[in-house]
Amino acid sequence: MVASPQSHLSAHHQPLPAEYQTTDKGRASAEAYYNTATPSTHNAGMAPKLSLSSTIPLPNSKYSVPRLGFGIYQSPPDVCVNSCLTALRAGYRHIDSAQFYRNESEMGEAVRQSGIPRPEVFLTTKILSAGGSPEKSYAKCLDSVKAIDPSENGYVDLFLIHSSSAGAAKRKEMWQALERLVEEKKARSIGVSNFGIGHINEMKEYAKIWPPQVNQIELHPWNQQREIVKYCRDHNIVIEAYCPLVRNKMAHEENLLAISKKHNKTTGQILIRYCLQKDWVPLPKSDTPSRIESNADLYDFELDEEDMTKLDSLDQGEKGAIVQAVRND
Known about the structure:
Radius of gyration: 19 Å
Shape: globular
Strand content: 5-15%
Distance between the termini: 34 Å
Number of strands: 10
Order of helices and strands: HHEEEHEHEHEHEHEHEHHEHH
Structural class: alpha/beta
Number of helices: 12
């Protein structure tokens, strides 16, 4: 997708004030900036109005990423195609898979069955484990591209390193493989997932493409990861949020229920809208057609300053993570 001008970014995706544009102030300054944010950073009503077609430009790129994505983790192959088709009919134009999910080809098949032109759908996948050399890792990634888009000029829109846990040498190997994908036009953009500040800084030693264009991490009111979020904003790295629904584990939390009742929306809709107003790219997942549709019905209401402040106050730090919080050392 071709990027819109930078002026379409909401306030909190613009560069931070100069006094905050250092990388060594740590969590304390992140908290300070976060907690003194102006109302426009919490309330999308003062920013360009959001819609299902809203996008965020990717840094150093002519492409943009749709602000709402559809996650397909643990979506079985025999279900995944139908779930993706339901999502595409509901208006999603961004689907997130991974080698580890074992449903890359089903994601691509759904796009072909939908009849929607390939350039109009943003497709993401990820590499979890290195192949043993940059060439072998590249071959693994190329297999994914071919599974998703087998056309002669097939490509993926975004290819991520799935985890930082492989170690420095293998992180380097996988990044070099992703850079080759970009050079050969098999990936339009590349990024990382579950990377902390140290992991991203480390990449400067060898990366041709730096910073990564995306960092996909677990984000929701109970795990806000403010230090890495601030770092990504400082460096214009787009922030994607997996597990935005907290796997329904907090659906009965009293503050969330009160906001849900106030707006006559589901708790899931409140949580996804929260992510959008934080300028994160949420990736809600469901295989239930009605929930897939409901999770995209987000644009006839806004969370006000009181709602956002109440949800912000629920942060439990890394204790609130249901998958993982990143390490920032």
